[in-house]
What we know:
This protein has about 270 residues and is α+β, with helices and mostly antiparallel strands. Helices cover about 40% and strands about 10% of the residues.
Amino acid sequence: MSETMERVSIYQPEQEGLVFPELPVFDTVEQERQHRKERLAAACRAFAKFGFNYGTAGHLTVRDPQTPDLYWTNPFAVPFRHVQVSNLILVDHNGRVVEGRHAANRAGFVLHSAIHEANPEIIASCHAHTVHGAAYAALGRPLPPNTQDVSVFFEHHVVIEEEAGAIVVEIDAGKAVGSAFGDNKAMIHQNHGLFSAGTHSIDEAAWWFIALEHACRVQLLLEASASPAKPVSPEAARHTRRHFGTPYMGWLNFQPIYDSLVREQPDFLD
C-alpha cells in the first residue's frame, strides 16, 4: 500500500503545548504485544457498540509482533461485547490455536490467514456480517465517490467475486480471496460482506471497517432516493484519500472510540 504512517495535521498549524494524539512507541516486544491485544479487544467491543454482531460471524485479527506468522483473534462463539484481552486466542496459518482456551472460527482463519499470507504488509484485518455491508455486497460493484467520507476508499478498495456467497472453509478457496485483496485497504466480497485491512495497526483496520459500513449505508440511502447523486470528481476524491485515507488517519479516527470504551467498558482490558 502506498500510504505511509506519517503524521499529517490537516486541522491546524503545529503549535507547542497543544494536545494531539501521538503514535505509541514501545521499548519491548512484550509491550507492543500487550498493546495490540488491548486494541484488538477494544475493536471487538467497538463492533458490538456499532451493532456488528451476527451470531458467531465476524473475526478480527492482528499479527503477533514477535512471530508475524501467528495472529491474535477473537474467540469463536464469544460475543464481541464479551471479548477481553484474557480470552483472545493466538492462531497459526493452519488454524491451530497455539495459545488460549477457545476454538477458532474456521471460516475466519481461512480467509484471514490467506489475506495475511498473500499480503505481508497487512498487520490487521477485520470482517463482520453487517446489514448495510451485506446488502451492498450483493450488488457486486465498487462504491462510487459520492461523498467526502467514501472518497478515502476511492481507487483503494476492490470487489471480489471468488467464492461469492459460499462459506469458505477450504484453504485453497481462501487463498484465491486473499491474493485478490491486493494493494487495497478494503474489500467488498460479493454476496458476503466487507473486509478491511490495516498496514500499521488494528486501530486502522477497525476504523476502515466502520467507515466502509457507513459508506455502504449512505450509498444505499442515495440509491433509494428520487434524485441521482452528484459524485465527487476523481481529482477531489484522490486529494481526499491522500489526506484522510492514510494509515495514520485511520489510527487517529479510532482513538476517540478507544477512549470512550476505556471509560464505559474498562473490563475489556482484563
